[in-house]
# Entry
Amino acid sequence: MAAGSSGVERTPARRKGAVFLDRDGVLTGAMVVDGKPYPAKSVDEAVLLPGVRAACRILRDAGLPLICVTNQPDISRGTLSSDAVAQINGWLLERLGLSDIRTCPHDDADNCACRKPRPGLLLAAAADHGLDLAASVMVGDRWRDMMAADNAGCIGIFIDHGYAEPQPIDVEHRFASLRAAVPTILRLTAGRTARPSAS
# Structure
């Protein structure tokens, strides 16, 4: 027995799942132009979607960390400032009690690891918060969100607003709003924890 050991074998703490949430179209209303969604340009334009505050409260009360992961390519395109995005994110953190917000400011041409459908935002958040991705869900309203969920090893929850753009294929869980998805999220995450691998 090692010096200083109590002789009691400790059971590794279970890592918990989380709810990853896209921002625009899931938490806040997106401005839809010609069937395509666009984010609010300022905090003054940002509006919570109906039922979002209640949905987040229920999920938080169930012990689930809520982490927003959002693509904001207009920063890279020069049509939206990083300060405006940060203000909207801060507004959401204050109102919804989110655990974290992770933002990708890049466009496709930047070839980054964090722009969904790549899973970089989810992987980094999981590492920083000690989360089990296999016990987590990703809620989003676009095909990029569902592919990011698949690439990260999460379960995808699709919020279908009927955008005029390519839709995700073979989505099992499809809802009209985050609030409508809450019972399924709770069912999917109930007891879905994993012990860390032995070193």
Q: What stands out?
A: The beta strands are 19-21, 31-33, 36-38, 66-71, 100-104, 137-140, 155-159, 174-175.
